[in-house]
User: Fold these one by one.
Assistant:
Number 1:
Amino acid sequence: MSSNTNPCLIQYQILKRFDSIRHFTTTRIGGVSVGNYSSFNLGLFTSDLPENISQNFDLLGSLTGIDKNTIHLPFQTHSNRIFQIGENFPGQHDETKKSLLHGIDALITDIPGQCIGVSTADCVPILLYDPVCKAIGAVHAGWRGTCSGIVTKTLTKMISAFQSDPANLIAVLGPSISPDVYEVGAPLMDEFREAGFETKEIFSEKNGRIFLDLWKANKQMLTDGGVKEENIEISGICTYSQHENFFSARRLGISSGRMISGIMLI
């Protein structure tokens, strides 16, 4: 289970064992934004006031001890594209960085001192850590990314880039919409079936309504990829049901704020 050490941040028991990383997932609590963005909005690509977002990032830095200039967040498009933060990336111009991170939904790196993260407001944030090869990953998995196998592709990329053995990987699935409330349409079942998923395992039907379990779907990809079940922690926190504490796009609409889940080698 997750360990809430600060009302603004969540950390995970399975990752807290390691002193060679820092990690976090933010909540809605403790920032300066207002309205639908109230209050700890860290969505760089939202319509919140830039000065509020900047202040919230300053707060994040004070809470985590991570310089906001070392936090790398992609412009996510629900793709299955992965980008590796290499040793030359931090020195690039800001516009170059933005271009490289555009249309990316997962980041990996083995460079210490560089925090990689994803922003979410119902989709599943997944943090990966290889304590043997000292490498990390951060994945944004909504239904599109899940269906197109972004977790599987990220594991494959970590194997090729860092020689990671999936059996050594630690994985966390952070706060996101739960299978109890994530209602979807019947055509989505066909998409997942065509992608090779066992739909009866990840879809359920209640009173004629269909629900999708993104937690189970992504956990299945992790275990199928060689990650040990005992090395996977699912937070079990539903952003939709606990929307007072977590941003939920289904609750707040397109103007929802965003949380960040990040991880950094130290």
Number 2:
Amino acid sequence: MSLAKTYPKIYSPAPVAWQVETAPVPYPQAAEFMETRAAQIAAGEAQELVWLLEHPPLYTGGTSAKEADLVDPERFDVFQTGRGGQYTYHGPGQRVGYVMLDLKKRGRDVSAFVRGLEQWIIDTLAEFDITAERRCGRVGVWVAYPDAQGTIIEEKIAAIGVRLRKWVSFHGISINLNPDLSHFAGIVPCGIQEHGVTSLSALGKDVSMAELDAALQRNFEVLFSPVESVA
């Protein structure tokens, strides 16, 4: 069932700005932009925004990050953030979606908002014949498939980490399109050791970033709001 029906308050008819970057954005620049934009949205001075981008290879640590989970701190730059969650990787071939929405207009229901983000990813991946699922006790979105011996393997294909200030969200989601999955070896992704990570490419899906973005836009408009593309 669509969360637009299950949690109608996360939907708003007011258009959200939709911005797509064509070049990698350094993490400090992105963090500064999000802080500023979230404050402007809270003050009623700026439109809500979904910002799609890629980062250079880097690791970020959330508020629950454990030092032991940073396996190789010298591999890439490491940034501490105020978002929820533990360590994650960002890099080329991964679509990052920073979601700056005013939850005062969307029911002030954080649980519904996070479930909406999960459903956004699940519905988007379904367009590419990928069955993605939630897992109780595990953050993010997962896929399950049999290996050559028939054993069911569960791997993470998308991560979620958000922060709220004055009921405005920032940070957001990341979906592995075709990143170098070996780059995840420098951390314990989200503190989960017993399951690996995967990507659309690793699952045999030949999808371009533009195709993924188009699917993200379609499904965002069903669950959250219509969008207006901005430069």
Number 3:
Amino acid sequence: MFTGIVTAVGRITEVTPLAQGKDAGVRLRIQAPGFLRPESKLGDSIAIQGACMTIVAIEDDGFKVDVSRESLNRTVGLHAPGDVNLEHAMRLGDTLDGHMVSGHVDGTATVTAFEQAGESWKLQIQIPSELGRYMAYKGSVTVNGVSLTVNSVQDKPEGCEIGINLIPHTVQVTTLKGLQPGARVNIEVDMIARYCERLLGARSVTA
């Protein structure tokens, strides 16, 4: 379990296929000096661009994770060298500064606008139709592992476009600063919204 509060930006420096063939996963080497805790160990969970991964090797300046082909097919930003948002799994007693995030990416979406608005930044994202129903005004969404608040929702025939205001601090300490229109991002919908849909659906069937 995570909170969507990014604690470091690391960098994928190596991408090594785990086997031959198009269905093979990859091993990523993440360079992140000072990110790992003294008690970090093999098997720990780390959110990388919002996707929960397991540490399989620890190095002086970072760590390695294995990413399955299924995860690669459902995410962006884990297939090639580049900067990535990092977050440790939440510990019992930690403050929940963002919202409850599972690290299970629901799908990808497309940035339609990213521009400065006063001292802040305005981010607009086109969400696929199957995920649009989970978007709500002032609700929560995770974008590339960052917990954000939805400030506008506009349903369209091709999906749902949401608007988000980013404060300068969020832009500075995450990979979101590199976004441009047309970029693809990882999306995880609000866990509570997903359970509400399931409960209401089950109630309708029972009735």
Number 4:
Amino acid sequence: MSPQSRRLAGILLVILPTVIYGGVSILSLLIGDRAYTENELRQDLWRAGHAHAGVLLVLSLVALRYVDEANLSDLMKPVVRSTIPASAILLPAAFFLSVISPEATEPNGLI
């Protein structure tokens, strides 16, 4: 594994517990926040956001191994290395930001 992939894997391994903590915070919202439990759309999209973030981070770690072995140019490898984990941030962000308002009855245009 290249040093660049190892460094990024280390960063991703540090970020992964923050996604887990976010899932635990959603659980605390389910238990203690009445406004959160009354909005099923918001519950579904926030749950989907955390699930996608966790899965995409794990897949990013797996993909780093294959990026180094792929027949890519030296200019393309850093692009691929950074865009795969970026999806783990951007896709869930769309879920979260599409229902920022607790009163939202449908997702806004960000989804």
